[in-house]
Amino acid sequence: MKAKDLREMTDEELSKKLIDTKDELFKLRFQLATNQLDNPMKIKEVRRNIARLKTIIRERELGIHRA
């Protein structure tokens, strides 16, 4: 997921996507704990996506517009 694509979403869509991504991270951590995770790099990717979502949400709260 690219930041450019995320910036085109509405606030409601971003909030929903953030909730879904956090749920995905929880499931991945559970798989890691039970030794069922095939690709451990997926956790890193999901954490970065959460950070991107939070950054864009915060930018909108502060009124920062990125080109």
UniProtKB/TrEMBL annotation:
<dbReference type="Pfam" id="PF00831">
    <property type="entry name" value="Ribosomal_L29"/>
</dbReference>
<keyword id="KW-0689">Ribosomal protein</keyword>
<dbReference type="InterPro" id="IPR001854">
    <property type="entry name" value="Ribosomal_uL29"/>
</dbReference>
<dbReference type="GO" id="GO:0006412">
    <property type="term" value="P:translation"/>
</dbReference>
<dbReference type="GO" id="GO:0003735">
    <property type="term" value="F:structural constituent of ribosome"/>
</dbReference>
<dbReference type="InterPro" id="IPR018254">
    <property type="entry name" value="Ribosomal_uL29_CS"/>
</dbReference>
<dbReference type="InterPro" id="IPR050063">
    <property type="entry name" value="Ribosomal_protein_uL29"/>
</dbReference>
<keyword id="KW-0687">Ribonucleoprotein</keyword>
<dbReference type="InterPro" id="IPR036049">
    <property type="entry name" value="Ribosomal_uL29_sf"/>
</dbReference>
<comment type="similarity">
    <text>Belongs to the universal ribosomal protein uL29 family.</text>
</comment>
<protein>
    <recommendedName>
        <fullName>Large ribosomal subunit protein uL29</fullName>
    </recommendedName>
</protein>
<dbReference type="GO" id="GO:0022625">
    <property type="term" value="C:cytosolic large ribosomal subunit"/>
</dbReference>
